[in-house]
Amino acid sequence: MSINSSCSGGNNSNNNNGGGNSSGGSPCGACKFLRRKCVPGCIFAPYFDSEQGATHFAAVHKVFGASNVSKLLLNIPVHKRLDAVVTICYEAQARLRDPVYGCVAHIFALQQQVIHNNRLINWWVNWLMIC
Ligand SMILES: [Zn+2]
């Protein structure tokens, strides 16, 4: 599972002031999806680009709701919002894929992989000690 750069603000790295549609051109991905005017200071603009941002925002809106995400971002310091958006996008995509467990299913699979690999390491260490 991977997060696309449009969800991480990769195309808007020069606009890290916590909001705004500084380009004055096309609306951000969130406003594009919500079919509303993207105003200067838009909370979503730095994180959801006009191209692929709408697709990612669709998942976020379906799982959490645009209003809830907006309120959540407003309560987070600007310098931490990017991490929050990446996490929200990740969880939203995971919830759509697995509505019951979300990203917990992925964490559980990774834990099982760690357990398996630790057993392999222990087996090889024991084998080397015998030789
Ligand atoms: Zn916008």
UniProtKB/TrEMBL annotation:
Residue ranges of domain LOB in the record: 26-128
InterPro entries given in the database record: LOB
Ranges where the record places region Disordered: 1-23
Skewed-composition ranges (Low complexity): 1-16
Signal peptide range in chain numbering: none
GO CC annotations, alphabetized: nucleus
Coiled coil: none
Stretches that traverse the bilayer: none
One Gene Ontology biological process: hormone-mediated signaling pathway
Top-level lineage group: Eukaryota
Family of the protein in this entry: Belongs to the LOB domain-containing protein family.
Protein name in the entry: LOB domain-containing protein 18
Taxonomic lineage of the native organism: Eukaryota, Viridiplantae, Streptophyta, Embryophyta, Tracheophyta
